[in-house]
Design brief:
The structure holds three protein chains of three kinds.
Chain A lengths: L2 H19 L1 H4 L31 H36 L2 H15 L3 H12 L3 H28 L2 H8 L4 H37 L11 H10 L6 H28 L8
Helix pairs in contact in A: 1-3, 1-10, 3-4, 3-6, 3-8, 3-10, 4-6, 5-6, 6-8, 8-9, 8-10, 9-10
Chain B lengths: L1 H28 L4 H6 L5 H11 L5 H13 L13 H36 L4 H15 L2 H15 L14 H35 L2 H8 L4 H38 L5 H10 L3 H29 L1 H6 L1
Chain C lengths: L1 E14 L2 E14 L3 E5 L6 H9 L6 E10 L2 E2 L5 H7 L4 E4 L3 H4 L6 H7 L8 H14 L5 H4 L9 H13 L5 E5 L7 H18 L2 E6 L2 H7 L2 E6 L2 E7 H6 L4 H9 L47 E5 L2 E4 L6
Chain lengths: 270, 314, 319
């Protein structure tokens, strides 16, 4: 992939992150302030993206929605990584039967279509950010755990690990010193490439009304508001969809470039 | 071949069983008493107790799971709460709509993705190749529900070219196909990118092979080398990918059905969640999961049948 | 009458580290109905030479000088379309690796009829011709063999099928690129005898590439010795093998396992390595490894004629 694409990715990501961090400075309007007299205003100088059915300023909601999207993405990815690493180490380092069992469970988890899994989980947790995070973890963990497991299995028999073992190093130390440093690079690249997927999951679940609870601004929720009113006030849907498109594109372009530069071995995954 | 088929089948059965266990655990963990949820707030304690016995909730966990497991394998997924009809029947009624949608998405993404990937591989390094690469990444990245909403906005609401809602008049195939266009664009767009990338990568690998050099040395026309000699091999990993793809399309189909108000399993589950019709939710999720595992199995078997090396060695 | 006459052929690849001069002033001839051997270590430019003749150089490679006259036409000046028309019917090739040379997912019969697409024959005639050719290379039950796939044949059979495919169109020139290297010794002998027999029947010329000196000596009438993309010595097999004049040829013959007591099939290498072809020395290319090196070797060596048809690119040739 050409470098200009990576540059475009960085610009988009910076735009989204900047917008989220400085949301209060850029958009003076309160994202949750209901103004019945300002309902369904089309885009103007006062309201750059117009207003929604409750008269809330969409530009402000979009910027604040970036906070939700990014923080959920970061938190859920970190949680998936943590769980994936632990489970992968257990599968790779533990007894054979446990390894086989875990692989089977991973395969079974992956055989649920993502959205179906999300829908089923919502029955358990109710519509909430918790549900979003759990879905992300369940979707991501099998992939991460497999990488860790493979690497652990490969290293388990490697000479320097055997030597460390014979010198009395505990399993925890071997994992920390020998296994993790070897896989953390590719794993982080994979995780960064999964960020747009996580953002899409959050937005998708919020779009279905199964994620973030109103009135918290979320891109998916804005998109749903827009969908409901799509015939008369299309700008609401545009306002909800645009940040999702730009963010997923930005992170994907950036991730692809990072992978090509740092770890060409991963090329062609997916 | 028989051994290959049987081992794949065995693995599929095992995976579905584990999926059932996971689903059962979820139902079991749902907070609150399912009988109370099903009967609503005005039910008496006696009514709840009667339903608990009827639903087998008074049994130990493992008995409950065993009953669920055995019934599920026999196609009995329980009855849905609202109309007390069998879940399996309700789900199977909606399934054809979803399958039609997935088939629509699959057909056009394959029809576009394979030639694009081939073209990019043959013109490796050219502007066309890079363009296909960037576009592939882009369409993979954008979530299908955003595509669905924007397609609805542009082609149905603004341009009014295509119908916005429903699946078309029953019995009118033309009308049904017209109603299929927008949802299948939403479902298939990302897969154009996936398929193009996959075909490009595996074409590049195959084009390096010695037998392609032989074919060139025999002066075969470039088109025949590309499409008959290389693509027939390069297509094999793509078929496996398509198996996985159908699972992801099931996900996109949920959104497409909701956005375009189409009947289908996705819409069914979504409505079931809103009405707390849990047996319907788990039943539909289980059916789609079985479907997904089955499709992957079929993809594996097709690859086995198409590749003469696999066909005779196993 | 010569079938192929190569004169001062130069091939250059553009690489990241600069231009790579892969073939430098290569000249030799393949007379009608004769078998010419090309011998040299790996990396001597044999594969580049074949690709240049076939017009199949990689995208970054080009013929940067000289000519390749085939039946009165310069191959380097033909359009890709004209080259495609020559490959197969006029210039056929058998490659080294019989395992990978045939397409794994297309039946042998289909592959054999496909390559006759320019013949204008009916499908039945094409199949008939394929069967006849498979019979000539002694594939058992050739009719049934048409429906089978390459992996269903042994390595030796696959190589015979490749030979059948190459000779089916009765080409004027057969290029055989180490066709026996991947086979074991008994199969090697059988394959060489088969090639010899078919060559005599069809009356084509053969360019036989090998690093196996014994095979060259037995099969070829003329021999071309290549080193680092240059022809260092050429002549009849008798001339070159009996009285080698280039120091490289001498060392090559000294290293030949057939002349040694130990039984290795791998050619023992001469001390030193082939120089970096991106920076060719101005003088003799073999000088850094040469045991007869003299100060004059820092200037370009001439193609010294030893005898009629026997030439060596060396300053130290004394007639």
């Amino acid at each position: 992939m050409a470098e200009p694409l990576g540059a475009l990715g960085i610009i988009l990501v910076l735009l989204v992150v900047g917008g989220a961090v400085f949301a209060d400075l850029i958009a003076s309007a309160d994202p949750n302030k209901i103004a019945p007299r300002d309902r369904f205003l089309s885009p103007s100088i006062d309201h750059l993206m117009g207003t929604d059915q409750l008269g809330r300023d969409l530009f402000s909601r979009v910027l604040h929605g970036g906070r939700i999207a990014l923080s959920v993405a970061l938190f859920a990815t970190a949680a998936s990584l943590a769980v994936g690493i632990v489970l992968g180490l257990i599968a790779g380092y533990g007894p054979r039967w446990l390894d086989n069992l875990m692989i089977l469970v991973f395969d079974a988890l992956k055989s649920f279509p993502t959205v179906m899994l999300a829908l089923a989980l919502v029955t358990l947790f109710g519509p909430s950010l918790t549900a979003v995070v759990v879905v992300v973890v369940l979707v991501n963990v099998p992939g991460y755990a497999r990488i860790i497991r493979t690497q652990t299995l490969a290293l388990k028999s490697a000479e320097f690990v055997t030597a460390a073992q014979s010198m009395g190093a505990g399993a925890g130390r071997i994992l920390r010193v020998h296994v993790l440093p070897n896989v953390i690079g590719p794993l982080l690249i994979l995780a960064s490439m999964d960020i747009p997927v996580v953002i899409a999951i959050e937005a998708g679940m919020s779009f279905l009304g199964l994620g973030v609870r109103p009135p918290t601004p979320s891109w998916g929720a804005i998109l749903n508001d827009g969908f409901t009113a799509i015939r008369d006030t299309p700008w609401i849907a545009v306002a909800g969809g645009l940040p999702i498109i730009l963010t997923t594109l930005g992170f994907t372009f950036l991730g692809e470039t990072l992978r090509d530069v740092f770890d060409p071995r991963l090329k062609g995954r997916g | 071949m028989l051994h290959y088929t049987l081992s794949r089948l065995g693995l599929a059965v095992l995976i579905v069983s584990v999926a059932m266990l996971i689903l059962f655990s979820m139902i079991y963990l749902i907070p609150g008493d399912p009988a109370a949820v099903a009967l609503g707030p005005r039910a008496t304690a006696a009514m709840r107790e009667a339903l608990r016995v009827k639903m087998g909730l008074d049994q130990p966990v493992w008995v409950q799971f065993w009953n669920f497991f055995i019934n599920a394998w026999q196609g009995d997924l329980g009855n849905e709460v609202l109309s007390d009809r069998p879940v399996s029947k309700v789900v199977l009624e909606q399934l054809p709509y979803t399958l039609a949608l997935i088939a629509g998405g699959m057909v056009w993404s394959v029809a576009l993705g394979i030639p694009l990937g081939c073209w990019a591989a043959v013109k490796r390094g050219s502007l066309a190749d890079r363009l296909v690469g960037v576009l592939s990444v882009a369409v993979i990245a954008v979530p299908s529900f955003v595509v669905a909403i924007y397609a609805l906005l542009i082609f149905a609401v603004s341009l009014r070219w295509l119908p916005a809602i429903g699946a078309g008049e029953p019995g009118d195939l033309g009308d049904q196909l017209v109603h299929l266009i927008l949802p299948s664009i939403a479902v298939g767009l990302g897969w154009v990118g996936y398929i193009a990338r996959m075909v490009r990568a595996s074409m590049l690998e195959v084009l390096e092979a010695q037998h392609i050099r032989t074919a060139r040395a025999f002066g075969l026309p470039d088109n025949q080398i590309t499409y008959q000699y290389a693509l027939t091999i390069a297509i094999l990993p793509t078929i496996t990918l398509l198996g996985v793809g159908i699972g992801q399309m099931l996900s996109s189909a949920v959104f497409a059905e909701i956005v375009f108000a189409r009947p289908g399993v996705g819409k069914l589950v979504y409505d079931a969640i809103l009405t707390r019709n849990y047996p319907l939710v788990t039943g539909a999720v289980l059916v789609t999961t079985v479907l997904f595992v089955l499709i992957n199995l079929i993809a594996d078997l097709i690859v086995g049948a198409l590749d003469p090396r696999v066909r005779s060695s196993l | 009458m010569t079938v192929l006459s190569i004169h001062n052929l130069n091939v250059t690849f553009s690489t990241e580290g600069g231009d790579l001069h892969a073939l430098k002033d290569v000249s030799f001839e393949v007379p009608e109905r004769r078998i010419v051997g090309i011998v040299g270590e790996s990396g001597c430019g044999k594969s580049t030479l074949i690709n240049a003749i076939l017009g199949l150089l990689a995208d970054n490679g080009r013929v940067s000088g000289g000519e390749m006259m085939f039946q009165g036409r310069d191959l380097s000046r033909l359009s890709p379309r004209e080259m495609t028309a020559l490959r197969g019917p006029q210039i056929a090739t058998v490659f080294q690796d019989p395992m990978g040379a045939l397409n794994p997912v297309i039946s042998v019969g289909r592959q054999m009829t496909n390559i006759q697409y320019r013949s204008g024959l009916s499908n039945a005639e094409k199949a008939e011709r394929a069967v006849a050719m498979l019979r000539r290379v002694r594939i058992p039950d050739p009719e049934a063999a048409l429906a089978r796939f390459p992996h269903q044949f042994s390595g030796g059979m696959k190589q015979r099928i490749a030979i059948a495919m190459a000779l089916m169109m009765e080409p004027a020139l057969l290029i055989a690129d180490e066709p026996t290297t991947a086979l074991d010794a008994t199969l090697e002998v059988a394959t060489i005898e088969l090639l010899q027999e078919l060559q005599a029947q069809i009356g084509c010329s053969v360019l036989f590439i090998s690093h196996h000196l014994g095979v060259i000596a037995e099969l070829c009438e003329d021999v071309v010795v290549m080193y680092a993309g240059e022809v260092v010595e050429r002549g009849t097999t008798r001339q070159v093998f009996n009285s080698p004049r280039h120091p490289y040829t001498e060392r090559l013959l000294d290293c030949d396992p057939a002349r040694q007591s130990s039984r290795t099939r791998q050619l023992p290498t001469i001390p030193g390595e082939i120089p970096d072809l991106r920076a060719r020395p101005p003088g003799c290319i073999f000088a850094p490894r040469c045991h007869r090196r003299a100060p004059v070797c820092d200037t370009p060596p001439p193609d010294e004629a030893v005898q009629d048809g026997h030439k060596a690119r060396c300053h130290m040739v004394t007639p």
